[in-house]
Amino acid sequence: MNTVASEPLRQGKKKIRGKKGKVTQILEYAAVYGLLALAGTIPRAGLYVISSVLGSLFYLLVPKRRTIAMANLKSAFAGEKSDTELRRIARRSFTSFFLTFFEIRKLQHLFKASNALRDLKKVAADDLDMIFQKAKKVHDEAGGCIFVTPHIGNWELLPQVSAVIGIPLVVVVRPLDNLYLEKLIYKDRSASGQVIIPKKNAFFALQKTLQQGKSIGMLPDQATMRGINVDFFGRTATTTPVPAFLSTLYKRPIVVVACCRNADFSRFEGVVLDPIWPQDYTSEKEEIYRITTEMNNKMESVIRKYPEQYLWMHNRWKRYKNKKEMLA
Predict the structure, then answer these.
(1) Is 327 domain-assigned?
(2) pTM for the complete prediction?
(3) 328 inside domain
C-alpha cells in the first residue's frame, strides 16, 4: 500500500528539493524532531502554551506571513470585525498552526489502540465518533465519496478518525521540500493505515480509488495555477476543479468535513456537512462550477464559525501571471 504511493512521491519532488541544501534539511529535521519529541512528554495544556509562544514569535518575526494573514482577514471580514479583533484572530491562527502538529504527536497512541473510539472521546467536546458516523453512512451508501476539508482546526486528525471508524481513505498530499521531514511525517500517517498519494499526477489514482469503492481525502482550499475562478469569501479565488470533476464523472458526493477545537482549544468538535451531490446537467462545465462554488461556500461557513483556527497565512487569493482557465 505505502510502497505504491512512495515511488511516485519521490519522483514528483526532485525539482522541488533542489531549493534546499542537505545541511538546511537536516537542521530543519532536527528542530522539528526535537519539538515533536517534546510534545509527546508534556500535557496538552503545555502544548497550547508552547504553540502560543511559537505562534506569537512567528507572527512578530515573519512579516510576510503576518501581512498576508491580516490582508486576508480584513478582506474576509470587511465591516464585520475591528482591527483589534482581526489581529487577535491572526495570532490565534498562528497558534493553531503549531498546535496541529504537536497534537498529532501527542495523540497518535489513541489511534493505535483497540479501544481508540473510547479514548478519543476523552479529548472530544462532543461524541466525535457519532458525528463522523454520518460521514461513514454517506461513504457506505454512495460506495465511496470525496471528503474535503479546509486547512482549519486539526486537519491532520481527520484521516486518523477515518481509519478508526472504518472508512478506507486515500489521502492526497503535497510533497514537502525536505526529504527528512517528509519521511518523519508520512511515516506516522502511513502507520495509521492511510494510503498516501502525491498531489502531482494524482488523477488516475483518484479515479481508481473511487472505482474500488474507497473514499478520497483532499484539502482543496489553496491557490493553484491549475484551477478555476470561483468565489470564496466574496473574492475570486483559484480553486481546483478535481473534486467536482470526479463527482460528476463517478456520481459520488462531496462531503465537507472538519475537526476543529472548542473556544479554549482544549477539546475537539467534529463537523460533517450535508453532501453535495452531482445533478443531471446539459453543460459539464456549468455543473463543475456549480459544485465547486457550493463546496467553497460550505468550507467558508465552517471557517466563519472557527476563524481563529484557519490558515490565514496562506496566500489563498494569489494571482497568477498568464494563467488560463482550465475549463475555458
Answers:
(1) no
(2) 0.86
(3) no
